[in-house]
């Protein structure tokens, strides 16, 4: 099932596996995954562990695609001719929803999106602490929306003022006025 409004969660993972480093992927005997969302295949002939490449999210099947390391990276694998995973695999998100998300944890896209998330959380933290929204007495959605809009406007105005005063290094500071 597709997430509502096509919003995809980008949430850092808590590491809860204490005794195991990797788990077998159901339906794929030689494919394993770890808690970071990395998927590995083990070659039948030499038993060597190889990381499978991200190949995207398939919305129609609600699954992640992983590409064979031989096709993705051009490496040699003695078992490639007999490997059942040489065409790649699909991992339904329902396999382990905490680890497999629509934005693959082991992809560069996840890292980029997560960086945006941390900057938004920084702004939310400033609203809570610096503007006093953590312990507010405002009641009603309209009043709260207005107060948040005013606080964000003040933050942006201070940043513009710092840039105009040729102090771009201080544009994120809420302590001293421009």
Report on the architecture of this protein.
- Helix content is 29%, strand content 15%.
- The protein is α+β, with helices and mostly antiparallel strands.
- The longest helix is centred in the C-terminal third of the chain and has 24 residues, at 141-164.
- Strand 5 (53-58) and strand 6 (63-67) form a beta hairpin.
- It has 2 domains: 4-103, no CATH class; 109-170, no CATH class.
- The chain is elongated and about 65 Å long.
- The protein has a 4-stranded antiparallel beta sheet with strand order 1-2-3-4, with no helix packed on it.
- The mean pLDDT is 86.
What's the short version?
By secondary structure, the chain is an alpha+beta fold.
Strand adjacency order, main sheet: 1-2-3-4
Approximate strand percentage: 15-25%
Low-confidence stretches: none
The domain tally reads: 2
State Rg: 23 Å
Provide the residue-averaged pLDDT.
86
* Count of helical regions: 3
Tell the overall outline: elongated
Give the topology string: H per helix, E per strand.
Answer: EEEEEEHEHH
Total strand segments: 7
Structural class: alpha+beta
Helix content: 25-40%
Largest sheet: 4 strands, antiparallel
Separation, N- and C-terminal Cα atoms = 50 Å
